[in-house]
Input
Amino acid sequence: MLKRIRKSFNPPKEVPTTVPCTENKPQSGQMSPLLDHNLQRIETIVGENSDLVIRRFLIFGEYHGAIVYFSSMVDEHSIFTDILKPLMSPPLHLIGRTIPDQELLDIIWNEVLHLSKSKRISCIDEMLDTGIQGSTLLMLDGFAESIVLDTRQVQMRGIEQPQTEQTIRGAREGFIEVLESNISLLRSRLQTTDLRITVNPIGQKTKSKVAVCYLESVANPELIKEANRRLSKIDTDGILDAGYIEQFIEDHPYSPFPQVQNTERPDKAAASLLEGRVILLTDGSPFALIVPAVFNQFYQTLDDYTERFIIGSLIRFIRVIALLFSLFFPALYVSIISFNPELIPTDFAVAVAGGRAGVPYPSVIEVLIMEVSMEVLREATLRMPQIIGGALSIVGVLVIGSAAVSAGFVSPITVVVVALTTIGSFATPAYNAAIALRMLRFPLIIMSGIFGLYGVMIGIIFIINHLLFMDSFGVPYLSPVVPINKQGLKDTLIRAPLWWMWKRPSHLHTVDNTRLADNDKLNTEPVLNPTQEER
Amino acid sequence: MKNRRIIVVLLQLTVFSLLLTGCWDSLEIDNRSLILGIAIDEAGPDAAKEEDLTNHKKLDSPDLNANMIRLTAQIAVAGRIPLGPGSGGDSENSAKGKNSPVWVVEVLGHTIDDAMNNLQQEIADPRFLIHLRVIVVSKKIAEKGLVNLNDYLRRNPEVRRSTWLLVADKQAADFMNVAPPLERVPTLYLLSMIEKSIAMGKFPQAFLSTFWSNDSKLGQSAYLPYVSIRQGQNVLIKGLAYFKDNKLAGTTTYPMEIGVFMAAKGINPGGFTTLFPVKDIGYVMVRTTNRKSHISIQIKNGKPHANVYVRLQSELGEKYDEQSKIDSEKSLKTIELEQERWIANVIHDLIKKTQKDKSDIFGFGEYVRAHERSFWNKSIQEKRDWENMYADMSVTIKVKVNIRRVGMKIY
Amino acid sequence: MRDTPIEVTIIVLLVLTALSTRRNIVKFSYIHLFYLPFLLGPALGIILTSLQNADVLNLEPVIGNHHTNIMGGLLDIAALFQSSFIITLIIPFMMKPEKAMKASIWAMIIAGMLYLLIVISTIATFGPQETIRLIWPTLENARTASIPGGFLERLDVIFLIVWLISVFTTMFTTYYLTCYTTQELFHFKDHGLFSTFLLPFVFVFAICPHDIFQFFQIAQWTGRIGFFLTLCYPILLWVIAVIRKKRERTCEE
Output
């Protein structure tokens, strides 16, 4: 009778999906039904590895089997409880049941193993690829197929505040190096079925998993297709960081300006997904790539949005000024001092002349020397450990500032100009854009040293033309300023109140345009009605 | 193909590096001699012998030799004019001696440009007029004519139009040495004095731009500040110097006339104080705070007639006589009427004076040109025509004064 | 900048223009769109600040004292608008070509207003007689204007920026037009080749005038020739088209 109940309770058998061998793998080999052969082949392919574990055992006390795994990549406890234990001691419903030999694998697959992520693979190379990534390979004697179970567990650090993007008011979580954890951070912020995440391995030796995330109902399908296409074209042996991917998929790799934004913050990533962008997460790198990226993203921070709009607008405005300052202030200074001193008021002109009186070389050289030493100082402080780094900055300021001036090496106004420029470049939140502007300072200084103000203008026109001609994934680089997009303009220099920005920026050509539903009802009705409350 | 690309790039690099070989115009600010102010005087008759010739051989024309000029230039010395507060020791010997912030150089020349070149011969760094703020011309030079100076200044692109041209009553060179304790650089002191007096309402805008514009206009004559030195250190704006045909025609006699000139033109802010006697009250001092004027032209009997209507707002500054009382509207009214009469008289006198010298500084001609077009086109072809016509022009002047404030005291 | 050889100055600007004309027409329009506020804004700023020295009396009588050569002056100014011929190049690429008429009228109005305002402010500051004597009245106007408070003294810096941008965009427009039409004429695929090719010709042409008076003369001549090409020739074509249409209609009947 029990048998009859058991039979009626039998769920329909799952059709097993086997991954066959592909012909273009070099060491392609089908498994042989003999366990010993398979194990030998595995050992020859993998070679000497102290963390390779091959464990033979008897399944249900009768059949020969073995598991193979790399102990540094797996959760061994899960292997013991979820694989070895149910295989070694048969579960209750199988006691007394005779299992025909051909069905052993299927029964194990369907009824015994406790792990959910599993595949059946018959190709040795595929098996080993997954095995290296932390799966356990279960092989049975007499079967040319193996069951591969995902038991991956690697060491990871805890979630902490992102180092490169500090905010005053915002979440203190940052992405870490493990892809699954990052995906969970992202999903917990966008808890909608619209969020699609597809994972592909890239890089022949590193086989890093790259996840492409987008919101189905919002993102432009052309953009998604293009992103996938570019990723598939990457053919290199190693992807060590998201930055490598960025360089391969950019439109204009020779331009100093970045066309892909990177962030360590899941809230920023979620915000850009909502705008219709595509996020690329790489296993092994805490930086998410945001694609496409336009110029005005590089001076926007999360703080602009979490604070109220007046504050956000003012601070953003200051940031833009600092950014522009860091680009052409030294060049302007050089051109005014060397070519056109009539532009400054007379008293100031004479005083500046006084400051420069002792300096032996022209102001171009002076400014260049100062700028280069500031850059060297900056690099030095980056590499130093924290303890020495703090002292170094003080020393740097003292040496370059006071001592150089008293030695007659530079004039005091040059020091002020260079210091202001450096501080201005720190105000740019995006590191890659800040570097671009830092780099461009030097050609501008040289142009201004040769031609004066005319040279500065020509240089600026050149840079602007370059920016105007670039686009990132089909989106013009200077949108929403050019071409003019009214909705996007509300978020460029100022940050308009959230209820004004009820449409998504149209330069991304999103599928769904509206963000806010009903923007009339905000802030107009009183919250509490006193008479009603009393009742 | 790849080789070709490399060759092209190399070629471009060489071409562009050739561009780098010269920073042609680059001249550091401390390698320039910034001339802050110049003073032009007549040189004595034997100056021709003293002159160090640079531009020409010894000229034998007696005409050119007789009219030589002495140019005194004040050059800023780099480094002696600090930005921040100067140290105590410097200010003592700042004006004279070794630590002077400016360097005064004197040269002779036949014309302005000639003198400038002689100047360049004597100083090391190239001279630049870009920061030239003040030019002082002596009365004698102005009487001889400023055509030459104007031509030079107009052609030179370095000269700003906001430079001030002053006419000095005696020696212009003295102005280059004036160094009052308030300001480190004498020229800048002169400049700030003039600009502040404009801000205080004591002088109309008359810098080079206005001077040249007025000079070119057919219906207006040009005017300049007339200055003199008092007590060795202080500079006094004595009046207006007015011109006819680029030559100095005359000056106003007392500073009050500047005030009435500004009243007639409606130039604000007001700032002049008048002292005049009022019947039953004695002497009072009234200060003008606001000026409005309306000038209209009518053609009577083929001659232009100007109606000048001036409205002033004033405040009472001081009364001289202790016994008299100014405590009612009636007494204010008396003062107002008296002042109106008084100012109208002064304007009338000024107009008569300028008519005698045929110099229309008020610009009545411009009003005629603007409003009475056909008359102008018929009679006036060049500036001289208007100057002659101005001499017999009739004027009606009406002044209205409104004393708005009496200060903190009521009687 | 006196000492810099003028050839170098011209070469730098020409190279910049030539490099920028290698792109397609969409980018071309981006450049104009972007630089527009940088032209209008400072220009208006200079005009407004120069108004503090302005005297309305200088503008009267509005008709002018003597009837001089108004027609000649009209033609010279109309010649300045010739650069708007570029619109014939852009219309085929427009998404909404029916708006072209409205857009070009607006463009004329804005440009015309800007010219008018500049002229008014210059004459108001200096008076008509002085303006005649100056070679570059607008430049002098910009120089005299100053921001109150003495912060920026000679505003010709801003003027330089405006002037340089406007020169660049104008040159860019006409250069692009030349390259594109040459490409169409010879049925080439890409106009990038011509942008480099045209460089030496333009350079030689720019060096030609010996001094400023000859330069004025040449400018006047090219203006008049261009006038004929851009106005009379299309009118001729239009007349021919109208005649043809009429003939077709009569043929059909």
Q: What stands out?
A: The two ends of chain B are 101 Å apart (CA to CA). Confidence is low (pLDDT under 50) at residues 84-98 of chain B. The interface with chain C takes residues 19, 24-25, 154, 160-162, 205, 209, 212-213, 215-218, 363, 366-367, 369-371, 373, 376-377 of chain B (CB under 8 Å). DSSP finds 14 helices and 13 strands in chain B.
